[in-house]
Structure formats: C-alpha cells, structure tokens
Amino acid sequence: MRFTLSWLGEHLEFAAGSRQPEFIARRLTELGLDVEHLERPAAGLENFVVGRIVAVEKHPRADRLHVCRVDTGREIAQVVCGAPNVAAGRAGVFAAPGCDIPGTGLHLKPAEIRGVESRGMLLSERELGVSDDHDGIVLFDEPAPAAGTPYLKASGRDDVIFDVAVTPNRGDWYSVRGIARELAAGGCGRLRPLPDYIPPVGHESPLRWRRAMAENDAALVPAVRGRHLRIDANGASPAWLRRRLEAAGQKSISTLVDLTNYFTFDLGRPLHVFDAAKVSGDLVLRRARAGEKLVALDEEEYALTPDDIVIASGADGEKVEAIAGIMGGLESGVDESSREIMLEVALFDSVSVAKTGRRLGLESEARRRFERGLDPKSLIYGERLASGMILRLCGGAASEPVGFGRIPARRGVVSLPLDYTRKLGGLSVSAARQTKHLKALGFEVEKVAASKRHPRGVLRCRAPSWRGDVETTACLVEDILRLEGYARIPARQLDAAAAVLSPAVSAGRSRESRLRHLAAWRGLDEHLGYSFVGADEAALFAVAGDSDGDGDGDGDGAGRTATVTAPRLRNPISAELSVMRPSVLASLVRAGARNLSRGHRRVALFELGPRYLGARPEEQESCLGIFRGGIFAPRFWRGDERDADIYDVKADVLAALAACDLRTDSLRSGNVEGDGPEWMHPTRGGAIFLGEKVLAHYGEAHPLRWKEMGLRGAVVMAEVYLGVLPGARYRVAGRRSAPVVSLQPAWRDFAFVVDAGVDAERVLRAIRGAGVREIGGVRLFDVYSGEELGTGRVGYAVEVMFRPAGRSFTDAELEDLSAGIVSRVREETGGELRS
Amino acid sequence: MTASESPEELAARAGAKIAAATNTAELETLRVAVLGKNGEITQRLRAVRDAPPEERRELGLKLNRAKNEIENALNARRDTLALRESRAALVSEKLDATLPAEELVLGHIHPVHRVIEEIVSLCSALGFTVAEGPDIEDGFHAFSALNIPPWHPARQDMDTFYLKPDDNNGAGADEEHTPCLLRPHTSSAQIRTMLSSPPPLRIVAPGRTFRSDSDATHAPMFHQLEALVVEKDVHMGHLRGTIETFLRGFFQNDSLPIRFRPSHFPFTEPSAEVDVGYHIKDDTVHIGSDGDGDGDSKWMEILGCGMVHPNVLKNCGVSPDKWQGFAWGIGIERLAILKYGAPDLRAFMRGDLDWLRRYGFRPWAKPAAAWGE
After folding, report:
1. Above 0.90 for ipTM, yes or no?
2. Are residues B15 and B50 in the same domain?
C-alpha cells in the first residue's frame, strides 16, 4: 500500500509535531504496519526554481535555438534554449549553473553556445528525471507560481511516499483512511470526519439492479447500490489526482477510471463504472453459467463456472459484463466518449471472491480488498462520495440511487476478561487504559462487573464495522498490546524446572548427525539436493522392481514388492524439478556430474536426506547417498594413482553401518548381477544384507545410462537405506561385565582355489562357519588367478586368527580347527586347498 | 708369550691391546687369543698344576685376577665399540622425514545442517526437544489446522507445490486428508506434535520446506525451523524472553538489538515479527549494532512468532482455557547467510565443491550438548 504524507493529511489532522515522515513511519511500524520504504521522489530536485521567461529572441547563428531572458526571482538570466515550445510570458523550470541535471547526469556550467553566453537551463520532464517526455520544456499552467518559487513546492512533488506492507487480516488498512484512523488511535492526531454529501437527483435512472439468485445464495451478494450519471466529459484527471495515483503505483487513464481507483485506495472502497450506453436491460447479479466467458479490463479472456458471481446485462441478463468483486469487462468499460454511466458500489462475500480470484489466477486491487473484507457501511457513504466526486470532476447530473439488499447485521460481542491481557500478553494494563485503547480503535466497550470467574471484570466489546477480522479475545489483546507498544512487554524466561531432562534429539536423529560427521571424516563433502528431480533421473533411480515389473522385490532396497510410483508435482517450476526423488542419488548424481565437468578431478559427495517412495508420511525415508567420481588416490610417491572403485564405496557403506551399531560380521554382501537398481552396472555392484533385508546398494554407475545422461568418467555410488535398519536406540544401562581375555591368539594362512563363479563372500562365510567361537578374524589378503590354477578358477589367500577362550590352543586343536575349515570350504564352495 | 711374564704383566699387555682395539671383531679376536680355549690365560691356568705346590695357590689367584681384569676390560670396551658401531649403522639407515605423508582428505558438513545443529544445541539447553514431520502433507496439517481454511488468501500467498492427483495413492480429491502437497512451512510439524503428545511441550522442528518460487532470493526448496512451547502460564513475555535468548545465543552477541513489532499470521494471535539490528561495513552485512556507533543501526526482519491461536489449539485437541502456547518460525539458510556470510541462496542446493569447501564445516566442529551420546 503506497500513499503520500499530504494524502494522509486529507484524513488525519496531525497532532502537534507529528507531521514528520520518520515519526509517522516509526509509529506505523509500532502499530503493525511495516513501512518497507520511505520514498522521496524529489531527491535531486531541490535546487530548481520557477523561472519566468521574460523575452525570447532567435539565436543569431542557429535556426533552432532561442536566446531567452529568464526571471529567476533573483536576477534576469540569459539562457540559450532549443525547445520548440519556449514562449515569452510563460513560466518554466530553471536550473542555475552549478546544478546537477538528474535526467542526464550532467553538471551544469556557464557556457557559450555558438557565440552566445548561456547561464542556466530550462528543463524538460526527462531532464528533471520525472518522465520520458522530452518534446519540450516544462511550462506551468497559468496563473503560474511566482518566479523563484522552489520547483518542488510549485509542482507539488515535495511529498514523501510511504510504502507499507499490510497484513492480510486488515482489509481496512488497504485504504489511506484506514491507516489514518489507526494513526489517530495511536496518538498521532485526529481523524477528520468524512463529508456528509448527498447528491442532488436530476433524473430517473433508466437502469435497475436485480439479484437473480436462489434464496440461500443471497448472502453472496448482500447488497448493491448504484447511480446513473449523465456526465459532461471524461478527460484527463486533475494534477492532484494523477499525482496521488502515481504515488499509489497506478497509471492515470481517464477521470472516471482514475476515480474508481482513487476510492479503492483512499477509502478501501472498490467501485466500478459501466458505460450505460453499452449495456441494456437490468444489471443482474447471478451465478455464471458453465461455458460463459468474459474478456476483462486486462484484455485477458476468463472462463467462468457456476461458482463465480457475475454482473450481467441484456433482456434476460444473458450477457456477462463483470466478474463480481474482481474485474469489469472490457466491452462495457468507460472511455473518453462515455457520457452516460452507471456507478456500481457492492458488497460481495469475501470467500466467494477469494475462490473465484484464486481459480482464475486474477489479481486486482478490488479483489484484494473484497477477499480481506471491507467496511459494509461504505455501501452508502462510498456511493454518495463517489457520485459527488464524479459530478465535481466530470460535470453533469445524477439519478436517484438504485439497487437492492441491505447492509448485513454487525458481528456479535467479544468479551475480554480484564486480567486476560496480562495472562496472554504478559503486560499489566489498567482497565481504564484497556477501555481507552479499544474505544480509540472504534470498539463499543461496556464494562461488566467482576464475577467469581473474572475477578477483575469483563469488557464486552463490539467491533466497528470496518473490523471484520475481530473474532477472538486474543485479537483484542493484540489490539491493546499494539497501542501500548510491544516494546513495553517485559521479557521473561521459561521455567527451567519444566525442562525435559532427556536427550534433545531422538536416537535416530542423533544417528543421522553421526553419519554426516563420519562421512565428512571419510573425505565426503555434504551436498543438499532438492527433493524433486527430473523425470529422467527419477526413472533411472526408481526403486528397481517397478520398472521391470517382475515383482520379485528382492533388489528394491526395502524388501517392497508393490509397484512404487514417485509422486509428481502438479505445478513444478521446471521439468528438471518435477518428480519427488525415489533415491537420494537422483539429485546427488547431478551435483557430482556438474563438479566433474567443471574440472574437479576428485569428487566425493554425500547426502543424507529423504527419498519418497510414495506420498504417505511412512513412505518418506532417510537415505545416505554417496557419490565418488574421478580419482580416489592421487599420484603419490608411495603408491599408484587410482580411480574410485566399488570397494571404496563399499567401505563407506560398511563404515556407515558400523556407525549405526551394526556388527559387521552380522552383515552379508552379495553381487546383484542384474537384480540391482537401474542406475547400477549390471555386473559391477553389490548389496549389503542383514538377513534377507537389503540395507544398502553400492556399485559402478551403469556405463550406458551414464553416457545417455551425457556424462563421462569413472563413477561409483552407494545408497544406505536408513529406514530399513534396525531402529536406533540410546544405550540406557552400562555394558555387562565379562573377563578380558589376554591369551595370545594364533594365526594360520590358507590358500583356497575355487571356481570363478563362487563369490568370495561364500568362501569367507564358510571359513567363519567352521569355528564361530574360536575364529576371531578372517582376512582375505590376496586374490589371484593364472594358468597354474586352471581356467575359470580363482585363488584366495586367507589369514585366519584363532582366539583362545579359557586357555591357549594346543597344536592338536589348531590342526583340528584348520582341518575343519578346509572341509567346510570344500563342502560349501567346492574349493580346495592349493597344493 | 714368555714364561717369565707375570700374570700382572700379562694383564697389562692384554689391557693395552684391548684399549687399542678399534672394532668389536678385533676385540673378539683378542678375546679368543687370551681367554679362548687355547688362549694365553687359559693355557697358563692349565699350567698351574705343573707349578711347584707352594706357588700354585699364589699363581692361581694371580692368574684368576688377571683373567677377571681382562674380562672386565673386554666387556667395557665391547660396549663402547658396539654402541659406536650401532650409531654408525643408524646414520646409514637415514630416511628423509620431510618427504610428504599421505594427506588427510576431509569432507565438509553443509552449512544448513551446521546451523540446525547449533540451534538444536542451543534450544536443548532451554529444555526443547526435536520433533519432525513429513515433507508431503495434507491440507489439514499444512493449513486447516493452522487456522488457514481452504479459501484463505494465505494458501495462495504461500505458492504451495501440489502433487498430481493420481499420485495421491488414489485417495481422490480430498485435499484435506490426502497427502497432496509439499509443506510450505514447518508449522505443520507443530500440529503433528500437538496431536500426538499431550502438553506441556517444548519442541523445535527443523526441516525441508517448499514454495514454487525461484529467483535470487527464493529457492523452491529451503529449510525452516519451527519452535513451539505449550505450557500453562506462558505468555508474550516468555515469547519475548525466549526469542531474545535464542537470537543472542545464536549470533553470540549479548547486546544484539532486537525489536518486536505487531504483525499477523493466521496461526498466532497476538502475532509479531522480530527484527535484529545490523550495520553495513565494507559492503558486508554485519548482524548487531555498529561498534563504532557511527551510522544508523538498521533493522532486518528475522522471524515471525506469536501466541498460538486458540483455534489451532482447539484443532489439536488442546484446550485454550487450560493451555497457552507460543511459536516461532525461522529460515535456516537465511541464518546461515547472516552468520557465516554465504552470499547466494541458490548456491546452497547446487552442490558445487568450491562452495561446499568454502562455506562448509569440518566434521569435528560439532556443537556440544544436545546429542545423547
């Protein structure tokens, strides 16, 4: 909401010393009207004065130039001027040497123009920086202000513009009068009364208003009041009106259009004027019919439905002329030739206007006010004042008022127990001051004596007609606090004894934080990706099992067999951000690829965030996504350079699972071989299982998919499905005590040869299975193949650690354990000891 | 060796040779020559039994004394030489300790999560616990329960993202009870908490929020933190005190200027917006008043807050006659920008390594206290 200080002065008689823009701005802020800007459009124009052009002669050596003598109020200055409209006897805007010209940025100096001295300049609007007009110099209408008068004063541009953010509850603040009223209540002055004007009736209205709606729809249009006017002209608006609309951010169009806009901003009273020559029959308020359309004043066509209220004309009210409370139609609008008009002042249901406006996506100043609620009493005074102003500015005569309906009854009473202001607001305010504040805001206040329930008594408050927002006692407390000043509320601290003495975060959240820090320790930078991705990524990272439709679900990461469809947005801001990501990797991969393409040779990223397997709350699941691309180990004097590979992300995954309190030996890894997620290389990826549950996937990016996405280079990724893990829990009691064994362990090495199709994991599990209690560790330290093993055979060298319990192992026991391992491996994998 | 040589002379001669030995190998040769199986002393001791009986004892004693002397001298000299030889060996084993070690490659924690951790730590000291809610919400939790009915202008002002209707698990067009939109604020977590846990409550709910808006100062996804207190006797004074403590603690500035001014939110009444003082120095925004005192302190809006609207309490089954509450909501990225100077909102979600390394945090930089471990 934008308005000027002088406009405010039309409604507010400022208290002594209050007419200071900074003071008013501060009070507005304290009252809840946030002042976003104080604009001084006049900045830079202070030095210009009115100059009377005393004489004009042709320049002796230039056809288009004139030599003028200008009375500046202090001297007669000689000025060379090139404007075609310069004329002796007229008054213009004079800039003396030494001034800066805002529109051109020039610093004005005395000059000689083609041999004639020029001391100063007569300015155009463009040079003043107030418009683009450069057709000629500014000339004041006669009688012009005296020579030497400051330009700002002469032009009325010495006004400060307030730009105020209005909260959506206060429709009444969408008017200069409403803001003036608030300032008056806030002690900045006295609200001037509205003029009590009744237009004289000159003729009978040829048009009538009618409501063609079902009985129970009547509340959608409680009342309409109009007046038929025959006017003399609809030309340009006077300067004061144009300036105020300009300050409000509105373009001046014609007097009638400007007046409807002016009343919208000045009184918060939207109006409409129909060109009465362009409508016939009665003006009918009704629901729109399905399929009806209207080209509105913004020249856009809007398709209407029976949920919308329209104003129609024609013999049967068949022609839609306006969308009620939002915008009039282009066809029946007024223009410069309009001589017969119908003024419309109406009350519409705010919810109905809001719904229609929202569906049509049509913003207008009228809608803004109707949907926030306006003063129903403005039906009468708004119509009278508007009619009067039209007669004043356009001339002509008015009919009697025509319309239907009545102003709805006012809202009921809200009771405010006097001690409630302190209880809710934390500020003690005397009964007298509470009453005073509410009365200043226009409430009718009646005090009810103290009762047992309300020992300090109750104020029964009836809100003024313009305060449709007052519904609760809390609202009254807010009004009282606003007028007292929020700054007066003493700060208090919460009761420490009421604090909860348990961890502030759940074990699950604590686990997530721990994983983030673990990942960062492992050299991964944390990315934070959008929850939505493009359809391509969503498909690529869709939970496997739905795209191939095999329904086996064992590769889907969560043991799900149902088809999973990632939710899509109805109104995305772009196609790249249109589907809820089914995997954290779907957004991580973009960031990773971007960094690789920007020349980073080592990219290691992670994100811990949600994936969305559906729209329901339980289908949102935390995942840890890991992306490693490019170099893992750089060139170094102690070792070879190598790229990140799947064992690097597997290590990341196992570290993460260990940080989730999972014992590594309870986990199993497996090759996915075509069973894995779509993004994964068909034969270079694996999963980590706990029992039958897949806890994580890790693998190389599918090289063909990767290429499809226009990306290159070695990339490995992993995703840990935190939602599938056993729930995190804080350890409440201490550890159970057990003796610490310090007997020396024994180590033995084995070399097994197995068929290449046998997973290493099976060999290792067979070894562990041979002595669950005795075997303390199994380490695979070499993998080899070669002709000596035979084709299709692979050798694993394994170090096994035997951990004694009560006493050290005897040689015989170690022999037995070793033999057990060999036979177990043979049974379970067909592997043999290398001879 | 001469037979006339006395044991003392023998010991002296051997001693001189020992002292002259320059390495342990030479010393070993000497030892064998004197003390070995056929060494001089060994032979002389063996010959004692051939000496006249009256001299035997005397000679034996003298020879044994000489043997001991020589042994001691040998041992002492061996220690000295062995040490010298070891030292010499160490010199030849030299490694260049200045060759570079493998570098520690550390990642970074995103500033959004750092700020959330800071706030959680801070608020845990004030007795708050962390609550959560889903990103995909229904109309009831995101709006209606917050006193924003379907027609309310605020629903439109929030530029909410909606899901395609056929993706709502087929539950049809009931926006109220079908998860169908991305929450535009974390206030919905407030509703879920009140519905699931009886008061008294002190919670903070950080999380992702979404609005269909994208320009230099708006991203379609950002993070908010919602704080809610519901107790019997909390009022605007507690709201003010708690928020002042929170902001001064977060910005680590005891004298941070803070201003409460009236505002409006559908879910609170009375409502307030809170501004903090800032100044601009070297073209950079600094939170807090200017230490030099030159130049005006300016105000910057930082959060919205208020007493929980009685309708919201009622919608969550909490009696407004018995309980009062206050809430505030704050943007996490904005806090990160103001406290740590990360300049561009859009960069937060872009994942550029240079940005993450410049504005991210080392893994050990973890605010203390809140975590139950």
Report:
1. no
2. yes
